[in-house]
Write a structure and sequence with these properties.
heterotrimer, A mainly alpha, B mainly alpha, C mainly alpha, A: 6 helices, 74% helix, 0% strand, C: two-stranded antiparallel ribbon
Chain lengths: 167, 100, 429
């Protein structure tokens, strides 16, 4: 299983480094490109977790949809001046403190709940056929949240069109 | 097999980086992108546990998270465009009309 | 050493397959340079390239050499890194999905469960090559061309997805191999059960690859050359190769989903006249095609313009003649059947792409967007609904499958006619 460990560490390293680059670049187009790299490595991690449908959905929706929307808006909001401005605001030290508190909280939670990781990981065949299982669960058990999610998307679409429309 | 705890540490790292991005950056677009980072960290968490507990409900929840993230990105960017048309800026320090 | 080879064994065949697919695609892209110019020329009652080789056959070599030897220009204030790598993104997004497409029944392509989703997803990453290439050029025309092209690609991707869903409902699986096997099981290609979905897929494919009549973002008489205005030399060759590879990709998807992939026409039926199955003559189609090409090349030799042309014709004739002879060897023809029929259908699609380029006028951008959102997407959604109803009638109440689906098709056509008849207020559609 060395292969899986190597790919996990490579993908995780790419994800973390890209995420750091997302929040530190001056040019928003560069940030968007590095976010695309992060999302691609997360899709690779999903593949490793036997979540093939979700990996494909991540690529189609998140990268092919949301990031295209981001890049479109960045190009429309054609800002030359942001590249010369100061990227970080004055409250950066508060953000550092908040991040440390968050990390401490997460570490304590993981430590207190470490029995949860003792459950043995099941075989690869447990979640197959992935698409069919997800489809059945989504359309039978979780039909109501599914319909609400589609309503939410409709409302978001209408709202975004109205707000971005030319007067 | 890579143990679940590894995925949780990665998720915690991405979450923290996203939170720092939201609180620190001045460009509103980068703030929205950091929110997407946070949502992706949550998704990794969900899928890792879905694999460990052999439950497909984690995947379904993750699909809902992606859906909500897409809707929120669309609305957020719509607000950004509307604001940019009025004020010609996306600097969060200058978007302070509601400050006392 | 033996352990190393054993460890690498599962990766050797897929790697070899990837290399062969890449070489075949490069050859097809190069051949398309000649085919497109010749076919367009004959459609416009002129001759096309005739100088470079006999009947212009060496034109791809000349064009490739020209592009490789051109000066490498990077615009002044351009973002250098993104400018250099935007064409690479387009090429990667256009070539990677070929790993998931099976060319024949016994092909060693991996049978991925969600192959079609990955193909659609990865090929939609080509949009980033367009956006970043247009933005990185730091010039007005490429930026406008990139924005328009992106809007067009995103709009028609939705219609493409819905057309794929109609075929998927019939196929029952997202695996490409499974869909072709379903068509073999039904005995009829899906194009005869869902022609409206096939039409929408084809139109959306035209828009996805920026081909006429949807080539406003890159047409010569419009925005100079759209998003690849500032690209010259080999980078333009990369965009060019990405565009033709994307054309071959959508043709391969349409072939697999609607035209039966590697299945021979009338694979399940027999027409027996005096104890002989007439339709089995179709098995000799590969020999016929290559033989006719060889004979035409040989016929052209006496009337050629110069000795160089005669030599080129002889070389081509020897190559095609060799392929014909190799096909006549025992055991080769059955093995090659699947790949031949697949590529034959893909070439029919490519010919249709070129045919449409020579036939239709260009859509204006607002007409293009109106067509996508007001016509294609509603018709595609209605088609999915009626396809689902037809399948339900077949499964639950034992209707005839073709009958139930064709009732749905006629209803969809009615809706499409009603939608097409509406003109927006005060403006011709």
């Amino acid at each position: 299983m060395m292969f899986y460990q190597v790919t996990f560490y490579v993908l995780a390293a790419i994800a973390v480094v890209s995420a750091l680059l997302v929040i530190t670049r001056r040019n928003p187009v560069h940030s968007a490109i590095f976010l695309i790299v992060t999302l691609l490595s997360v899709a690779g991690l999903y593949l490793q977790l036997q979540a093939e449908f979700l990996a494909a959905v991540q690529i189609i929706l998140y990268i092919g949809g949301v990031m295209v929307l981001f890049l479109f808006v960045i190009l429309l909001v054609n800002l030359e001046v942001t590249v010369r401005q100061e990227p970080f605001n004055r409250m950066w030290w508060i953000a550092g403190v908040a991040a440390l508190v968050l990390l401490a909280e997460l570490a304590i939670t993981y430590y207190l709940g470490r029995q949860a990781f003792a459950t043995p990981v099941v075989s690869a065949a447990a979640l197959q056929p992935n698409t069919e299982l997800i489809g059945r669960t989504l359309y039978q058990t979780y039909m109501l949240p599914f319909e609400m999610a589609s309503l939410l998307l409709l409302v978001a679409m209408v709202g975004a069109v109205i707000m971005a429309r030319r007067r | 097999m890579v143990p679940t705890s590894h995925y949780l540490f990665l998720s915690a790292a991405l979450l923290t980086i996203g939170v720092i991005g939201v609180l620190t950056r001045r460009n509103l677009i980068v703030v929205l992108m950091s929110i997407e980072l946070i949502l992706n960290a949550v998704n990794i968490n969900l899928i890792a546990f879905a694999r460990q507990l052999a439950s497909v409900e984690g995947h379904v929840f993750a699909i809902f998270v992606i859906t909500v993230a897409a809707a929120e990105a669309a609305v957020g960017l719509g607000i950004l465009i509307a604001f940019f048309r009025n004020r010609e800026t996306v600097n969060t320090d200058e978007i302070d009309l509601l400050k006392w | 050493m033996a352990e190393l080879i054993d460890a690498l064994q599962p990766y050797l065949i897929p790697t070899l397959r990837v290399v062969i697919a890449f070489l075949v695609l490069s050859l097809i892209a190069a051949a398309m340079i000649w085919i497109e110019r010749k076919v367009l020329a004959h459609l416009q009652v002129r001759l096309g390239p005739m100088r470079v080789g006999p009947h212009g056959l060496l034109q791809p070599i000349a064009d490739t050499l020209k592009l490789l030897l051109k000066e490498d220009i990077v615009p002044a204030e351009a973002d250098r890194f993104i400018f250099l790598y935007a064409p690479v993104i387009s090429v990667i997004a256009a070539l990677t999905p070929f790993a998931f497409i099976p060319f024949a029944a016994n092909d060693r392509a991996p049978d991925v469960n969600v192959a079609l989703l990955f193909i659609v997803g990865v090929s939609s990453l080509g949009i980033f090559g367009t956006i970043l290439g247009g933005w990185a050029s730091n010039s007005h025309y490429p930026l406008m061309g990139a924005l328009r092209s992106t809007a067009q690609l995103v709009s028609y991707e939705v219609a493409l997805g819905f057309a794929l869903v109609s075929a998927l409902l019939l196929g029952g699986t997202l695996s490409m191999r499974g869909i072709v096997e379903k068509q073999a099981e039904f005995g009829v290609w899906f194009v005869f059960l869902q022609p409206v979905a096939f039409f929408i897929l084809f139109v959306a494919a035209l828009a996805e690859t920026n081909r006429n009549p949807f080539d406003l973002p890159e047409a010569e008489s419009e925005l100079v050359a759209g998003f690849h205005t500032e690209y010259s030399g080999f980078r333009f060759a990369l965009f060019f190769m990405a565009e033709y590879s994307a054309m071959v990709l959508v043709s391969a998807i349409a072939t697999t989903l609607f035209l039966g992939g590697w299945l021979r026409p009338f694979a399940n039926t027999e027409v027996v006249i005096q104890g002989f199955d007439v339709l089995s003559l179709l098995d000799w189609m590969p020999v016929a095609v290559f033989g006719v090409i060889t004979l035409w090349l040989l016929k052209e030799i006496p009337g050629a313009d110069s000795n160089t042309h005669r030599l080129a014709l002889l070389v081509f004739a020897v190559v095609f003649g060799g392929v014909t002879a190799a096909l006549l060897l025992p055991g080769v023809l059955p093995a090659v059947q699947g790949v031949f029929w697949f590529l034959f259908k893909v070439f029919i699609f490519l010919f249709c792409f070129i045919w449409f380029r020579g036939t239709f006028p260009r859509y204006r951008f607002d007409q293009l967007m109106r067509l996508g959102w007001h016509f294609m997407i509603p018709v595609a959604i209605v088609n999915v609904i009626f396809c689902g109803i037809g399948l339900l009638l077949w499964q639950q109440w034992d209707w005839n499958l073709a009958g139930a689906l064709w009732v749905g098709n006629l209803a969809t056509l009615l809706v499409a006619l009603l939608l097409a008849g509406r003109t927006p207020a005060g403006q011709a559609a």
